[in-house]
Amino acid sequence: PILPFIEGLRDRGFYDVTLVYLDKLEQRSDLPADIKERIPYERAQTLLAGVRELNSVDAQRQQLDAADAAFEQFVKASPGNPLAATANTWRGRILFEKARVEIFEGDDPTHQSKRKDYQAKARSLLHLARRLFEQAAAQNKKALDEFPAFIPESETEKHAARTKVENTYIEVVFEMGRCTYWEARTYDKGSKEAKAALQKASAEFTDMYERTRNNAGGKFARLWQGKCFEELDQITQALGVYEDLLTLTP
Fold it and tell me: How far apart (Å, rounded) are the C-alpha atoms in residues 28 and 39?
């Protein structure tokens, strides 16, 4: 069983062995079409999982770039594959993390002369990440809409499948809000642009909470709404959100 074997290798941290195995699979002429189609996706997941084993920041960046390229290869070759939305989500997360690195580099006092350059690069990465999250959200929403509006509890498998797709959709929408929040960090604190981004993020988290308040993702959106209020110095509103969340804690 090829896919469980690949997953087993990754679970045990054998990332280099997994990559060699995937290369050998690619050369086989008797490989089932669905497995062959999935090789770039599995390669990307392996590269991504192996990043944490690298000590060099430059090596981590290079491996993240390689993972992103493999995900992109998979999406372009197989846009209709159910895993395409997941691949786009991971590509967005890779770009999101790279943007945060640029933000932190710009915040470093030793990099003040290049601060604006770091901020501009971070903004560009966040815009690209958001675009990918929007694609993933559309793909997940389409999959969600294919389920009937009502599924009896007795149809446990179909009910679980719908819940899984719904949760994935909510996660991606949440990532879009985080992109907006972190865009505020690409401007100087207190600037007109930073405040506008925080207000937009607050509105996005508010909308998500109102639509998904019974879901864990909705509660996370509520928390980040409070964080936006806090950074806008709207302390009364922030405290109101935090106190509301505390009442939900057992």
Answer: 12
